[in-house]
Amino acid sequence: MIIKLLPEQIPTYWEHIKFALIKTMIIEPKSMERYLINILSLLLTSRYQCWLAVSEEKKIHWLLISRIYNGFGGEAYFFIETLYGYAPISVQTKEEIMKTMQKFAKEIGCTYILCVPMSPLAVKVCQQVNMDEKAKIYMIKVGGLNEDI
Questions:
Q1: Please, are residues 16 and 63 in contact by the beta-carbon 8 Å criterion?
Q2: What are 37-49's pLDDT values in tens digits?
Q3: What domains does the chain contain, in order, with CATH numbers?
Q4: Which of 20, 35, 92, 126 could in theory staple to 131 by disulfide, Cβ–Cβ 3.0 to 4.6 A?
């Protein structure tokens, strides 16, 4: 079962959400507290959404955090910010999650669903639900350039 948490439910699940964020994001340790506070604020004000895939026993198997991104061309994109698995799930459940995301995205006027996978597991999930790779993201820390360049 896929559940979209309401803002008032976020505090109840905050420790699960925080754990998933820490495990999936590339954030400098000194910036982590500010990052978590910002995400919490965005979730509590419905600017970000939190989704849970739960078993019949009400155990959390997967957690997703999403937001709506408005592109420069006026199109709205449903952007999956965080994708974290607490337990293995079937491809069928992953497809159910994607169908739920598509239904929600369509209802709010989005044209595409985007995901920037930050782990090999997230890449695999994107491939399993037939998402197309359109770009790669490269990163370098400021000040990390070779002096000879």
A1: yes
A2: 999 999 999 999 9
A3: 2-128 (3.40.630.30)
A4: 126
